[in-house]
Amino acid sequence: MRVGDHHYRTVWMEGSKVFLIDQPKLPHRFEITTTDHHRQTAKAIKDMVVRGAGAIGATGAYGAAQAALEAPSDPHDFRIYFATAVEHLRATRPTAQNLFYGIGRVSKAVMKELPDVSAAREAAVAAAGEVAEEDAGACRRIGEHGASLIGEGWGISTHCNAGWLAFVDWGSALSPVYAAHRRGQRPFVYVDETRPRGQGANLTAWELGGEGISHALIADNAAGHFMQRGAIQIVLVGSDRIARNGDVANKIGTYTHAVVAHEMGIPFYVAAPTTTIDPQCPSGDDIPIEERDADEVLYTVGRDDEGQIRRVRVAPSGCAARNPAFDVTPARYITGIITEHGVFPATPDGIARTLKARDPAT
Ligand code: MRU
Fold first, then answer.
1. 240 C-alpha vs ligand 1 centroid, how far in Å?
2. pLDDT-based confidence at 184, cuts 50/70/90?
3. What distance in angstroms lies between residue 75's CA and the mean position of ligand 1's atoms?
């Protein structure tokens, strides 16, 4: 997407260097950071310099490609180095399925070529590039399928950031909004701030502003009020992992929105590329939920009136906190799942059909 006059992707690779938009600096500063080694790339994922399901999927794939480039040339030593690197990359964040998908694609490509190490290196870089390219393409198509669900002048509620910063390009939940806007519709987005890390306030509001889309930032607790008052006609959220029965893990707070939307009869759509579906995961109960540092709840970060970025404590000292990063929305609350292959019901059959559309050979 455009930033100023420039088209940017969230992550890309040149040679053995990975380039990332430094997301914790947004919205106050737009900077690109680079990593030269797979361990640095893993740290960028863990520390959420890059975050969002598709973006960490592509970054994980690039990290695995870096590992293939770094590994020793002896096939036995290459295998050991690469396998250790893959485990390290996989251990960065537990919930988003795209991370495992991206790393898995590169691993498969490497294994197919071994013991020819130079072919394995080439295959790794090519596979990582494909993961990124396919993510961007899938998100663009999600926009085309999803835009037809949005009526003229509708109020849209979204949670967290499932925009282009969360993927390689376009985004999932925001992609239909971008497509509708480009078709000349005038959507209005209610952006949940998304405590504790504030991805809605920091990232979604910044993205929408950049595209000239009307929006208002709201406290997370305010969405129900706007739904009740008739301001919201559709809820669009992303997903970090979709189970075989149609249950969906997404940013903490999504479940609450889904229940209120259901109570109000407001359609609640999940937008995700099919790479977010975990075919090995029977239901939402089986999705690992990341619990992050309590400090993310106990403190908040922002820019003061003098332009200084500051971290301030918002709770009494000694206060305990819990910080689950995701929750699971049961399939019964989901109107449909918008994928690159169209809109499917959040049911075991709908998920099976979605997987078939992705890979007709299965
Ligand atoms: O913890 P994050 O910021 O990596 O969370 C992932 C998300 O961006 C959201 O849960 C999003 O809605 C999923 S789609 C990218």
1. 6
2. very high
3. 37
**Is residue 92 over pLDDT 90?**
yes
Share of the chain above pLDDT 90, in %: 98
Structural domains present in the chain: 2-140 (1.20.120.420), 148-358 (3.40.50.10470)
Say what the pLDDT of residue 110 is. Answer: 98
pLDDT (mean) for 91-110: 98
Which one of the listed residues 135, 192, 240, 247 is annotated catalytic?
Answer: 240
308 vs 293: CA distance, rounded Å: 24
Take residue 157 and report the two structure tokens written for it: 């509620």
Residue-wise over 215-242: b if at least 16 C-beta within 10 A, else e?
A: bebbebeebbebbeeebbbbbbbbbbbb
CA distance 8 to 15: 18
Q: Is 83 left (phi over 0), alpha (psi -120 to 50) or beta?
A: alpha
CA–centroid distance for 333 within its chain: 21
How far, in Å, is the centroid of ligand 1 from the Cα of 231?
25
**How big is the CA angle at 170 (ends 215 and 330), to the nearest 5 degrees?**
75
Q: Does 293 participate in catalysis according to the annotation?
A: no
Could you write out the DSSP letters of every residue in 328-340? EE-GGG-SEEEET
Q: Which residues contact 202 (CB under 8 A, 6 or more apart)?
A: 23, 26, 27, 161
Amino acid 5: pLDDT? 86
Q: What is the residue-averaged pLDDT of the chain? A: 97
Adjacent-strand bridge partners of 216? 190
- pLDDT tens track for 25-74: 999 999 999 999 999 999 999 999 999 999 999 999 999 999 999 999 99
Q: Residues with beta carbon inside 6 Å of ligand 1?
A: 51-53, 160-162, 166, 172, 199, 237-240, 250-251, 325
Q: 302 has which bridge partners? A: 310
Residue 302 to residue 316: CA distance in whole angstroms:
19
pLDDT band (50, 70, 90) for residue 2: confident
